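TL;DR need structure tokens for one chain.
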Amino acid sequence: MKRRSILQACAGGLAAVSGGCLDAVGLQTQSAWRDPPLVDDRPDGVYYPAVTEGMATYGTTTAGPYTVALTYSYPHRFWQVTGSEREKTVVGSEDSVHLMASIWDTQSGTVIPVDGLSAEITTEDGELVAEEVIYPMLSQQMGYHSGANFALPGDGSYRAAVSIGGTAIRRTGRFTNRFDEPHTATFAFEFTSENLYDIEIRRLGEKAGTRGAVEPMEMGIPVGRAPPVERLPGTPIGRATSGDAVVPVRAIPDESGGTRIAAFPRTPYNRIVLPLMALSATVERNDRTVAEIPLTRALDPRLGYHYAAPIEDVRPDDTLRVSVETPPQVARHDGYETAFLGMKPITLSVPETIA
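>> reply
TL;DR here they are.
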């Protein structure tokens, strides 16, 4: 149902005897817009949240090689991650809207995790009303995107300038030498409480807290899915899980004719990429370490976002250990905040097909 519908029902005298109309859907009057229900006993992994909230779009535009979509929803709580520590960001009393930016390569549709993103909100007259860093985030409904809560002075007409920094990530294939330059995407939008309250809210009932994830919303906006494992080039070395992340590992051809070890971490269930990690690989042979290499972040139109490094000597029956030095440095919405933190090394045996 929609939050405005809840308010109208309550105002019309349809409140339940015990706790009122908002209680009927798990919302308290003083926190109905600020702090929706949160599962009490959450698993250490991806789970169905207690409540899902929809979103709407303010528009889509292009900026250099990018297509940028600006979407919005109710102000959200979320969890920021620094290193392996998680900190809850609550909705402030002045927060009006949760703005989200999705950025992808116009040619390929590949979501681009840029290195720096911020948004400046002004009135039609050019008066600055808000300026915020937009955090890279994981959401079950939106996939990988960037977002933040913004305080606006009230209903009215605004302009949003989304500043996109160039990326230092290694790029291969058709992405080589692309995405270096900063760009700005500009949107004119009308903020009204009426439109905000029209966004759907849904309680998941018995599913809440169980393992799984809702499907991302279908809005014509790429959500950052990793390629299916069967479509990845190269030789499969194996696939394992760590901190509930699924991590396929492959030996892929290098541009110079050599071999690279590549890891492709993604969420379970919906295959959303897990960016901004620090990974390393160790090759052991006959109980002796023969190689230790950091896996660097890389972006390719066929491979998507991955972590890879060249390796000169890997043989069948070697032991390959991939360690997570730093988990994904992305904020998380409900359902992802307990996952992808305590990530143990994964160990694989190099198959005969590597020869």
